[in-house]
Write a structure and sequence with these properties.
The structure holds two protein chains of two kinds. Helix content of chain A is 41%, strand content 16%. Chain A is an alpha/beta fold. In chain A, helix 1 packs antiparallel against helix 7, helix 4 (123-138) packs across helix 5 (143-153) and helix 4 (123-138) runs parallel beside helix 10. Chain B is built from twelve helices and ten strands. The chains are: A alpha/beta, B alpha/beta.
C-alpha cells in the first residue's frame, strides 16, 4: 500500500483479511482494525495534534471540504486553532438544495476568518453523467458519498473530509461497539483508484483521536447510563460542544430537499453495489482497556 | 398620504414641512417623533406589540425584508413571538457577493422554523443600469440603500424593514482620543440621518404601503429602547469608553433575544470598491442630502413621554 490513508495506515479495512482490498463477491467478509494509541489525549488535543500531522503530510496545502455539518466544522476548527492556514471548499447544489447546510459552512468560515471557495454543481447532472463512474470506482451505492468524491475531484490541494466519526452502537447487555460501515470505506477506495493521498476520515486519522473519543468521560457516562440512545450520533453535538465552539443546528444530511432524487439513484446503485454494505463492530471495552 | 409609521407619528422633511423633499442645499433637514399614548413595556414587549400592530394595520400580507443583520433578525424574532402571519424575503446577490449575510438569514429562518423566499439580484448590473432611477426617485446619496428599495418593490405585499433603530452618540471634546483621554460624563444625542429616510421616500414615490422603520414604528417602541437599563447606563456614561450605542447593539439585543453570534457586516464588503465608486456618483448627484439631526437624549425622552407620567 503506497498511499497513507490514515496516519501510518493505522486504520485498515479488510476483505477476507486482506488489507485495503476491494470486494470481489458478496461472500467476502469485511473487517477493520485500528492502531494502538501511544498516548492519552483528550479529544481536543487529539484533533489538534493530528491536524499538525496532516498539515505536515500535506506539504502545508490543505483544503477542507465543509459540508455545513458539525463534523467538518470541528475538523476545520482543529486546524484554525493552531494557526495552520487552510482553505475551505463548500459544495453548493443547484436550486439551493443544500442552502441550509451551506449557510452553516459559510458562517463557520467567516467566523474563523478562513478563506473559502464555493463549488457550484448540479447534483442531478453530476449523478447522470459521472455518478455511476464514481460508484464503480469505489463500490459505492450512496449518492451522498459520491457527491463528496465529485467535490474532492474539484480540489487540487490535499483534502480533509470530516469523515470517520466514531459511531458507537449498543449491543446486547451493557456492551457498546464502535461500528464501522463498509460503505464509508468507499472514500478510501476512491483515493486508492485516484492514487491520491488525502484525509477522508479526519476522526480516525490517528488511533489517539479514536481512543480519545471512546474514553471521553461524557461518552462513557452516556453509554453507561440507561438511556434510549440508538447510537452515539444522538449526542454528537453535545460531545463536540465540550471542546469546540459550534452553532447549534439540527442534524441534517444536506439531502433533505432531494430525497426523491437520492432514492432514485440509490435504488439503482444498490442493485449493483448493495452487497457492499457490511458492518464490523469492535467492542468499546477493547479501547478502554488498551 | 401613506401611513409610514403608526399614525405617522414620525415626521421628517425640510424646513419644518413634514414629508417634504429637499429642493436646495440650504434646506434644513428635520425629524421629529410623536408622543406615547400608553406606558411602554420593556423593549422586548414593544418588539412584539409593534409586530402585532403592524400586522393589524397592514393592508396587505406582510413581507419581512431580512438582510441577515442583527436588526432584522430581532425583527424576525418579534414577529415570530407575536404569532402573526408573515413572509420572509432574502435578497441574494449574484456570484455569492453577499453570501455571508444570506447564510445568517437562512440559518436564522431555519432555526425559527420560518420559511423564506430568495430574491436574486445582480447587484453589479443593478447599480450599473438602475441605480440612478432609484436615487432620483428618493434623493438618495447612498447606493447601499437602493438594493433594499428594489426588494421592497418586488415583494407582493407589505414590506417591513428592520430599520429605524436608535443611534445614540456621546459628545466628546475636540482632540478626544479613545483609550487615552479621560472619559467624562457628557450629553448624548440621538442621530437621525436624512439619507435613511430615503426608504420612506421610496414607499411614497411608488405609493406602496410598507414599514421602512420597524424600530421607530411607534413612540412607545422608541421610548422602550431609550429607557432600557443598559441604554440608561450608556447615556449616563457609566460604561467607560463607549461613544455610541453601535458597539453595544449586539449586547443590548442579546438581553432580550437569543441571536446568532456574528461578525458585523454591512453586506457590501465583497463589492466594496464598486460601492465606493457609486457612493461617489451618488454624492455628485446629491451632495447636500446627508444632513443629520441630533436630538438630546433627555429632551427626547421627555418629549416622547409628553404629559403621560
Amino acid at each position: 500500500m503506497n498511499l497513507e490513508l490514515t496516519h501510518e495506515n493505522h486504520f485498515k479495512y479488510f476483505y477476507n483479511e486482506v488489507p485495503f482490498g476491494f470486494r470481489k463477491s458478496a461472500e467476502d467478509v469485511f473487517s477493520v482494525s485500528y492502531g494502538k494509541a501511544r498516548k492519552h489525549l483528550n479529544f481536543s488535543q487529539a484533533c489538534e495534534e493530528q491536524s499538525r500531522l496532516i498539515y505536515s503530510k500535506a506539504g502545508h496545502r490543505v483544503g477542507i471540504l465543509l459540508s455545513g455539518g458539525v463534523d467538518s466544522e470541528v475538523a476545520l476548527q482543529s486546524f484554525v486553532r493552531q494557526g495552520l492556514p487552510v482553505k475551505a471548499y463548500i459544495g453548493k447544489m443547484r436550486n439551493d438544495y443544500n442552502l441550509h447546510d451551506m449557510s452553516y459552512a459559510v458562517i463557520a468560515c467567516e467566523r474563523m476568518l478562513v478563506p473559502y471557495q464555493i463549488i457550484d454543481y448540479d447534483f442531478e447532472k453530476m449523478m447522470d453523467e459521472q455518478g455511476y463512474g464514481y460508484a464503480e470506482l469505489s463500490q459505492c451505492f450512496s449518492p451522498q458519498l459520491i457527491a463528496v468524491m465529485y467535490l474532492m475531484d474539484q480540489i487540487s490541494e490535499y483534502v480533509v473530509v470530516g469523515g470517520g466519526d466514531c459511531i458507537l452502537v449498543p449491543g446486547s447487555g451493557n456492551e457498546w461497539f464502535l461500528r464501522e460501515r463498509e460503505r464509508v470505506t468507499s472514500w478510501y477506495k476512491f483515493l486508492q483508484r485516484r492514487h491520491r493521498e488525502s484525509c477522508v476520515g479526519f476522526f480516525q486519522y490517528t488511533p489517539e483521536v479514536i481512543h480519545a473519543y471512546v474514553r471521553d468521560p461524557l461518552v462513557q457516562m452516556k453509554i453507561r447510563a440507561k438511556s434510549d440512545y440508538e447510537s452515539s450520533a444522538d449526542f454528537k453535538l453535545e460531545f463536540y460542544q465540550q471542546y469546540f465552539d459550534l452553532i447549534k443546528r439540527k442534524k441534517m444530511t444536506g439531502f433533505e430537499k432531494i430525497q426523491d432524487l437520492d432514492y432514485r439513484y440509490r435504488s439503482e446503485l444498490q442493485k449493483i453495489y448493495g452487497h457492499c454494505d457490511q458492518e464490523y463492530n469492535t467492542a468499546v471495552t477493547k479501547f478502554v482497556t488498551a | 398620504m401613506l401611513e409610514l409609521t403608526y399614525k405617522n407619528h414620525f415626521k421628517f422633511g425640510f424646513n419644518g414641512v413634514p414629508f417634504s423633499r429637499r429642493s436646495s442645499a440650504q434646506d434644513v433637514w428635520f425629524a421629529e417623533f410623536g408622543q406615547i399614548e400608553r406606558q411602554p413595556g420593556s423593549f422586548k414587549d414593544e418588539c412584539i406589540a409593534t409586530a402585532k400592530l403592524i400586522a393589524e394595520r397592514a393592508p396587505a400580507p406582510l413581507w419581512l425584508l431580512f438582510s441577515g443583520g442583527i436588526d432584522s433578525e430581532v425583527m424576525l424574532h418579534s414577529f415570530v413571538a407575536a404569532g402573526v402571519p408573515f413572509n420572509v424575503a432574502i435578497n441574494r446577490f449574484a456570484r455569492d457577493l453577499n453570501i455571508h449575510d444570506v447564510s445568517y438569514a437562512v440559518i436564522a429562518c431555519e432555526s425559527l422554523g420560518v420559511s423564506y423566499k430568495i430574491f436574486e439580484l445582480d447587484i453589479e448590473d443593478f447599480w450599473r443600469t438602475k441605480f440612478l432611477d432609484y436615487i432620483y426617485k428618493t434623493d438618495c446619496c447612498w447606493p447601499a440603500l437602493t438594493s433594499t428599495m428594489w426588494l421592497m418593490e418586488q415583494v407582493p405585499g407589505y414590506p417591513v424593514l428592520g430599520s429605524g433603530e436608535c443611534f445614540l452618540e456621546k459628545v466628546v471634546p475636540a482632540g478626544y482620543v479613545p483609550g487615552e483621554s479621560p472619559y467624562d460624563p457628557s450629553d448624548w444625542f440621538l442621530r437621525e440621518r436624512e439619507r435613511i429616510a430615503s426608504w420612506y421616500r421610496f414607499l411614497q414615490a411608488i405609493d406602496k404601503p410598507g414599514c421602512a422603520g420597524f424600530y421607530q414604528y411607534t413612540p412607545e417602541f422608541i421610548l422602550s429602547f431609550l429607557q432600557d437599563p443598559l441604554i440608561k447606563d450608556l447615556t449616563s456614561s457609566k460604561i467607560v469608553g463607549k461613544l455610541t450605542t453601535q458597539s453595544s447593539k449586539a449586547k443590548f439585543y442579546a438581553q432580550h433575544f437569543d441571536l446568532l453570534p456574528r461578525t458585523k457586516y454591512s453586506g457590501f464588503e465583497k463589492v466594496n470598491s464598486l460601492n465606493l465608486y457609486y457612493q461617489d456618483i451618488a454624492r455628485k448627484h446629491f451632495p447636500h442630502h446627508d444632513q443629520i439631526q441630533k436630538m438630546h437624549y433627555s429632551g427626547l425622552v421627555q418629549h416622547l413621554r409628553g404629559n403621560l407620567e
